[in-house]
Amino acid sequence: MEQSYSTWSRASRARLMAVCWISVVMVFFTFSTTQEYYSMPIYPALALLLGSAMASQGKRVRDGTWILQAVSAVVCVTLAFVLLRVWRMPAPGDISQALTQHPEMYTLSMGHMGDLTLNAFAYLKLPLAVAMVAFAAIAAGLAFWRQSIRKTVLVIAIGMTIFFQAARLALIRFDGYLGSYPLAQSLLKSPPGQLVEANAYYAFSSVFFYTGRTALLLNGRTNNLEYGSYAPGAPNVFINDAKLATLWQSPSRCYLLAYGSEKNYLEQLVGVTNLHVVAENADNYLFTNLPLPEDRTDQ
């Protein structure tokens, strides 16, 4: 094995090392449920392999170009079909109203893709159109300039640049669903009080970022902080239902960040009349235990 390996060219050795790089990362993180994040270290190795293949201009590059052209054409037609289906659909409010929930899928890689519905694409008409143009440009460009590797690479680069813009536009449409900026703004405008979060620390982490505040974590030990929460010197920020009920009945103002799916449970825990809505955003809530001055709410 050592003798045969020593006869390989430098390029072949580099390709082998890149394959090993990719394999180690992917095999190791096969045991993880969030490969879309942990697989990022393989991108440099993939780029090296792609660059090496394009430089060789061999049969595999030609075959790959054919496949890419076919896939781009199919994706373009599919996007056009979806765009036609949703063109006349209304898109009131934010996109969260058109999404479904599949919590059992969220531990799987790309599990949130199942939340998309046909109605949700009505909120994404512009991103769909831009993405369609991107794949149309790739398919058409490869049809005309497939024989030139330089022009092929340029076509793909232009198409992906356009597609990234489609992704950016789509992310803007999802901003209200993914972020909690409106809740943070409502909290900043409200009277001072103790903040509690009804989930793990990352559920409303953007609120902490925008407000510069910390919070107590309701049942937060049941998530990733289980072990560290018992370490000596760990902050005493973890409370249970009983502690929240006591805190909520106190004369001091408290705020609670929670998902809409937890609203019924919280109403049973602290009482419907004691759960005042300060703000709502994409089925996420900011509650308080005391009525706001002049019954102010941001719903």
List the helices and strands and how they pair.
Blueprint: H1 2-6, H2 10-28, H3 35-38, H4 43-56, H5 59-86, H6 125-145, H7 149-173, H8 175-178, H9 181-189, E1 194-197, H10 205-211, E2 216-218, E3 238-239, H11 241-248, E4 254-259, H12 263-270, E5 276-281, E6 284-288
Parallel strand pairs: 1-2, 1-4, 2-3
Antiparallel strand pairs: 4-6, 5-6
Helix pairs in contact: 2-4, 5-6, 6-7, 9-10
* Helix amount: 40-55%
Mean pLDDT: 86
Question: How do the SSEs run, as a string of H and E?
Answer: HHHHHHHHHEHEEHEHEE
Total E-strand runs: 6
Overall shape: globular
Largest sheet: 6 strands, mixed
Task: Provide a count of the helices.
Answer: 12
Strand content: 5-15%
Q: Tell me the quaternary state.
A: single chain
What distance lies between the first and last C-alpha atoms, to the nearest angstrom? 69 Å
Q: How many structural domains does the protein architecture include? A: 3
Specify Rg, calculated over alpha carbons. Answer: 26 Å
Structural class: alpha/beta
Low-confidence stretches: none
Describe the structure.
The protein has twelve helices and six strands. With 299 residues, it is an alpha/beta fold. It folds into three domains: 1-46; 59-177, no CATH class; 179-295. The protein has helices at 2-6, 10-28, 35-38, 43-56, 59-86, 125-145, 149-173, 175-178, 181-189, 205-211, 241-248, 263-270, and strands spanning 194-197, 216-218, 238-239, 254-259, 276-281, 284-288. Helix 10 links the parallel strand 1 and strand 2 (216-218). Helix 5 packs antiparallel against helix 6. Strands 3-2-1-4-6-5 form a six-stranded mixed beta sheet.
